[in-house]
Fold these 2 entries.
Entry 1:
Amino acid sequence: MNNLLLFLLVFFHIAPIDMNKLYGPCVTVPVIMYHHIQDEATAKKLGQGGLSVSSDWFRKQMEYIKAKGYSPINLSQISDFFDSGTELPKKPIAITLDDAYEDNYLNAYPVLKDLGIKATIFTPTGLVTVIDYLNWGEIGEMSGSGLIYFANHTWSHHASSGALDVLDKEIRLADGQLAEKGYNQSKIFAYPYGNPSAGAEKVLTKYGYKLAFTTVHGSLLCKGKRFELPRIRIGNAPLANFGL
Ligand SMILES: [Zn+2]
């Protein structure tokens, strides 16, 4: 905290913002975020180092989650908490993977299956079957395990700025494709590129969406901010380095 802020707080007795009062109920759940899971040499060769966690680190991190007694939850449990007060398990955590890369099936899914850990893959449905992305067969297999949930990430990985009619189409198309296959009945969304927008929020509300995740850093999730939920970006390091 800088000195001026400290001075203001002490001198004027300004209380820190009470999120629960303003936006509650709130709950602390680290929602950790991954993109590619692949070995470091491949990531480097493809210029995907910044968006990759190595398969080895991913396994170590998932083992840590188990060893530390975290309870991996479905994201729908967060909306159940917001809307019905349904209690979350002790030490809740949620694992998310963005963009539905095929390496999620090749490198992350075996680890998750091995350890019985739930995760959500935010899927731009228009990219499914494109090379290096998941195909519907892999998605079906992972979903069938009961561990992996597939949620909306627009149709073409479209930014949430821009024209409302395009946003509407992007969110509606992905919603329809997922619904047609029985996916994402809990209406969960993540913003491509991470930034929320008033337009996107309007569209999400229109289609009955319950939660939307950003790439803003944090772990305090509040009902009044259910379309601007924070996450924690994970890299090649022990999860303890990310506050877990
Ligand atoms: Zn994305």
Entry 2:
Amino acid sequence: MIQSNYFTDNADLQEHFGQIIDWPGIIELYENGFADAAEFRKTKNPRYEMAPSSVEEAQQYYKEILNSAGEIAGMHVSQAAQAIDREGLKYTDNNVIHPQKMIDVIQKYRDAGLPPIAFRRKYGGLGLPSVVKAMASELMYRADTSTTIAMGSMGLAGILEKHASEEAKEKWIPKMIAENYCVAMGLSEPDFGSDLPSVRTKAVQRDGKWYLTGTKRFQTVACGLNGGPAIMLALARTGEGTTGAKGLSFFIVERKDYKVTGIEKKLGLKASATCEVALEDSPGELVGKEGYGLVRYVIGMLNGARMGIAAQGVGLATAGYMEAKKYAAERIQFGKPIQEIPAVARMLSRMEREIAAMRCLMVEGATIVDRYQCPEFNGVVSDEARYWEKIANTITPISKYYNSEMCNELIDDALQVFGGSGYTEDYDLARLYRDARITNIYDGTTQIQVNAAIGGVIAGMAAQGQWRQYLDSLTKQIGKNDAISDIRARFEEVVEAWRKFEDREVKEGMSFEVVESAARLVNSLLMEKATLRATDKATRAKLNAAYHVDSLATVTGNLIRLRAG
Ligand SMILES: Cc1cc2nc3c(=O)[nH]c(=O)nc-3n(C[C@H](O)[C@H](O)[C@H](O)COP(=O)(O)OP(=O)(O)OC[C@H]3O[C@@H](n4cnc5c(N)ncnc54)[C@H](O)[C@@H]3O)c2cc1C
């Protein structure tokens, strides 16, 4: 793979960081009057030592972190990725061995102090807004997915920061950071994947302690890294005789208390351990309140998880695009570099504009998550925060669905640019292709994301609906734009056509067309919004114009499908 700093070598990412993102707005929200810096001045508590005390300091701090992540990702992880993938994993009796090269590059992340990226300073984390976390994830996923998943799994424990008792947070989060824990999200079971409300693992209480019994499937890094510590955050049924979501609670189960009975042989992610886990009367520590596991905690965690995959999609697609662009400049056919052949140039330019759109969506989604989560963390309840939560509940499934589906399409194109060489294991495209394929399946399939978004889009498009208000506010910011007006008009027709269906199943079956149309419109708007603050407005205007044509074509195609019923 290309060897360079993946933060500084990416012009679009640099433009977002340096020009497009509204840092004062984000920083004021996240830093809450620079309360952490004030806490450090008062107490000298080392957890707050790095807390910025101004917008400029915060921006500089984020830049240093992204620079460091970009350096490790692009100079080291990317160079080891192919060997890591080829070596893969070895399973023997409750134990999984990861490639030594993977352990070595993860050590570089650890030496740079990056693992606690997901946590707030209060619990020993780096204290980063969601948009910085998303950008850091993008850089790392561009280098290697298996390594990034193993390195970043600890971030799943962000759910504890939100829902565990203060005592449990202090017990677990600093320990996880200090000892480099892996964290598995124990949701799926052999018979229940999308259908989480039916999960069957049981938790019973004896002498004031909880014990879990059941089988969890597809548990990423539940094994830990070569003997290193791990926990599983497991969803289990506590209410006697209950069915459905309300009987489910959330538990911390330690690695020593469960058995890894095997790992999956998979299409991709060859060095990411997907474990089958047996819980046999395994001690578990209840997180938060009994019965809130799925309905409050897992659901509450979803917006962050969806943005994680949205960033993964951008990272993988960027890897494919950058590699394809380099190859197309070097590969000569018919006496010229293939980048000069119109059919190849067409694939490359589609990749460029789609990645620009995906990155806009990632940045917007992450910013919106902060707009309701930061006030929530600071104990502020406001109508504005509630509005942003509603928008987040619609834009995050859209981001997850769009970026994961598009990442698959773009890597397919990138492989095509490599011709036969792309199909071999000599280059990185085959691995990227295999690794991309899971993004639209795990953490909720595309179909489940569509189910999650459709209500917010349809109800939100009512006369006073929140999605309409959100679209109107973006439209107002960008001013008059004929291309966008055409897409919006067509989108309104799409919504109307869907509303006219009387049969519930027909509605469900045609939801994708509505959600895809909503995604195209919002992306077109976000690309224009980004251009307002960008330096190279002329280049962006060209990308935007081509993207809007694609959007109009897609939304019009969906309208035709919906009208046909
Ligand atoms: C590599 C890998 C890593 C994973 N890591 C984890 C992990 O760490 N923790 C964890 O808990 N799980 C993990 N998973 C599981 C993953 O989240 C599930 O595979 C995923 O949610 C889909 O569930 P399923 O495989 O049971 O498919 P199913 O739920 O059986 O779905 C099959 C098909 O039916 C569709 N479908 C199902 N229900 C609906 C519906 N209501 N509406 C529309 N379409 C529907 C789906 O979209 C899909 O196309 C992992 C999976 C893999 C492959």
